[in-house]
Amino acid sequence: MSTTGKKRDTYHHGALRTELVDASVRLIESEGIGSVSLRRVAREAGVSPGAPYHHFPNRAALLSAIAAQGFRELAADIDAVGRTTRAAAAPALVRCYLDFARRRPGHFQVMWRHELSEPEKHPDVQSAMEEAFGALARLLHDVDAEDQAGLGTMLWALGHGLASLTLDHQLDHTALKWDTTADDLVERCLTLVSGLAGRS
């Protein structure tokens, strides 16, 4: 929802940056990535059109901040899984990835669009991506698998695929054809993953 009324230029320096990122995420979730511009985000945050430039020189810098924030939160989620569910790490990782996408759909849409966030120009994105990969590697370290790299890639691909299908509502459409629900299909996938990981 857009902010109306008098412009706010009285945010604390750090609070304005946070609000600009939050406003961008709200726009992405409601209208898509194409709706994000520094001018539009300024209007959503209730500040003057020039205010965002104190923090973000361009749109890519703003999107990179969203991507970095998302990767760091995903890394924290994966680490939390590792502390609580090592015995069932494989299906738990897929569920963690899917839960993150459902909870942070705006972030998820930006994180893997490198042409938008430009990680090669924004080191924070690259370091946050490495944090997430490190969390994945730590989680799989204790998994009894002959090919941890292959297993990790498979789990990432499954989690990403389920997340994308869920956010695009394609899983709901597929579930109708199978006379079931999207959640049931997810649980079936996780059961299969658990069995495959157990035989690794």
From TrEMBL:
Residues 14-74 form the HTH tetR-type domain. Residues 37-56 bind DNA. PROSITE patterns: HTH_TETR_2 (PS50977). The keyword DNA-binding applies. Pfam families: TetR_C_33, TetR_N. Keywords: DNA-binding, Transcription, Transcription regulation. This is TetR-like C-terminal domain-containing protein. The lineage of its organism: Bacteria, Bacillati, Actinomycetota, Actinomycetes, Micrococcales.
